[in-house]
Write a structure and sequence with these properties.
This protein is α+β, with helices and mostly antiparallel strands and about 200 residues long. It has a single domain, classed as Jelly Rolls (Sandwich), CATH 2.60.120. The protein is built from 4 helices and 13 strands. Strands 1-2-10-7-12-5 form a 6-stranded antiparallel β-sheet, with no helix packed on it. The protein has a 5-stranded antiparallel β-sheet with strand order 9-8-11-6-13, with no helix packed on it. The longest helix has 16 residues. The radius of gyration is 17 Å and the shape is globular. It starts with a strand and ends with a helix.
Length: about 200
C-alpha cells in the first residue's frame, strides 16, 4: 500500500495495491498495521458509515468537538467524489486551508483525517457510494458544520456541477462565524489529544 501525507498535518492518502485477473479484482482497502504505523496509534473502530449520493450532492463541512472528536478513514466503493480535508484547528500553521483528493472506484484510495479536521465531499457521479470507518460513534450534541460554499474557504467544487445540500448544511455558519462563536477546535488541544492516543498505544491500551 502506497502512503502519501497531505500538506495538512493529520491527513494521509492510502493507495492500495490491486490484484486483477479474469475473475475480477481483489485489494486490501484498509490495513490496521499500516495505518497504525503512519498515524502513530491504532484507529479505534467504533462505527462504520455508508452513504450513496446522486451527482452534485455536497456533504459537509462536518466536524466534532475534541475530545474525542472523530477520526475517519474514507473510501469510495462506487463512482467518484471529490473529498476535501479542511483545517479548522485554530492556531494550526495551515488553518483555513484545504486539501482535495479524488476518491473513486478505479484507484480505490483511502483518505484518513485526524480528529479536529473538517470533512466534506461532493459526488461527481450518480450513485457515488462512500464507506468510512470512524473512531467514535456519531453524537449529534457534539457535531458541527461549516458552510461548504463559504467563499473564503473556496473549496474546489466543480463549476459544472450544481451543489445539492441538506437544509442543515446549507444553514451552517462560515468559518469566520464558527470561529467567532467559539465552535472550532484549537490546534494545541488537538496536538495534546493526539499525544494521549499515542501514549495509550505505548501502554498497550
Amino acid at each position: 500500500m502506497e502512503v502519501h501525507e497531505l500538506a495538512i498535518a493529520g491527513a494521509w492518502v492510502f493507495t492500495p495495491r490491486q490484484h486483477t485477473d479474469d475473475r475480477g479484482t481483489f485489494l486490501e482497502w484498509f490495513r490496521s498495521e499500516t495505518v497504525t504505523k503512519v498515524i502513530g496509534h491504532p484507529l479505534d473502530l467504533a462505527q462504520a458509515n455508508h452513504s450513496v449520493s446522486r451527482r452534485g450532492t455536497l456533504r459537509g463541512v462536518h466536524y466534532a468537538d475534541i475530545p474525542p472528536s472523530q477520526a475517519k478513514y474514507v473510501t469510495c466503493v462506487h463512482g467518484q467524489v471529490i473529498d476535501c480535508v479542511v483545517d479548522i484547528r485554530i492556531g494550526s500553521p495551515t488553518y483555513g486551508t484545504h486539501q482535495a483528493v479524488v476518491l473513486d472506484d478505479v484507484d480505490r484510495r483511502g483518505l484518513y483525517l485526524a480528529e479536529g479536521l473538517g470533512h466534506a465531499f461532493m459526488a461527481l457521479t450518480d450513485n457515488a457510494a462512500i464507506s468510512y470507518l470512524c473512531s467514535t460513534p456519531f453524537n449529534p450534541s457534539h457535531e458541527h458544520g461549516i458552510d461548504p460554499l463559504d467563499p473564503e474557504l473556496a473549496l474546489p467544487w466543480p463549476s459544472d456541477v450544481s451543489p445539492l445540500l441538506s437544509e442543515k448544511d446549507a444553514a451552517a455558519p462560515s468559518l469566520k462565524e464558527a470561529e467567532a462563536a467559539g465552535l472550532l477546535p484549537s490546534y494545541p488541544d488537538c496536538l495534546a489529544f493526539y499525544e494521549v492516543l499515542r501514549n495509550q498505544r505505548g501502554r498497550g491500551q
